[in-house]
## 1
Amino acid sequence: MFTISIETDNAAFGPTPVDRAAAIAAILRNIAVTVENYAPVQMERVLYDLNGNACGAWDLAPFDFATHGETDPDEEEDAPSVDPSDIDEITCTYGGSKTPATCYTWAGRSGTWYAIEGSLNVNCTFDDLAEGVDVEELNDHDTGTAAAPINSAEDMARFCSDL
């Protein structure tokens, strides 16, 4: 089962039906990329509008290929956790003044997840995350918010284990 809910009553959806349709289409394209790269695992994600504000959520139940149907959540195994040794640490820049920072990265099934040290924001991209990358130039297709700032490989591994 796939469910989606989008609140369209904020400024990011614009004043006209055409603006609203364009904003909704952008959100749906991001969902499509994520589903295409994650399926068939369970996914539940917060949706963000073009201004970066939470505007809804979506949920995709896992598919059981053996029975050609949805799996019973009580029978699902826990996803393997991400080991901190799987997290890479690179130097990156961010912001208009290209502030240098440490960036923690993890290559997952849906692309590479990354977070700037000290941030709650964790993003996913298909772009190359090489040493010295300017994260403002990356094309993110998914985002998440950590419960606490990402200050180490262990913090990043903990976040990625919950994906």
Note: Confidence is low (pLDDT under 50) at residues 75-79.
## 2
Amino acid sequence: MVWIGDNCRRESLRVAPRLDLRRRGVEDTGPPSPGSQHSSPPGTLHGGILCDVADAAMGCATLSVLEEGEMFATVELKINFLKPVWTGRLTAVGSVVKGGRTITLCDCRVTDEGGSLVAYATCTQITLRE
């Protein structure tokens, strides 16, 4: 199971197909935790899955600062993989580093069950208005 930050709207949890993404404090049933179908050739969790999870957490952070009627799109994303993961619960916490009228800079820390940093990501989001 992957937990993301508390600031995410429930409908925003529809990423990383077949993963159980949950917001803290929200009771929800979902698909299983990362399994063999999410593995890279060496058998560790594929980096693309970690990237999806970090992107979702940072997207939720961005949503927390937008006004009604605004949406966003990711224009740049960078991730550092710091430790291999095979199994277990991950926590991804996205934060807004700097929010502006048009551009929002976010970061995300993905940690394992022991609190060890597994991945660190940053992204730039552009605010879209009707």
Note: The first helix runs from residue 47 to 63.
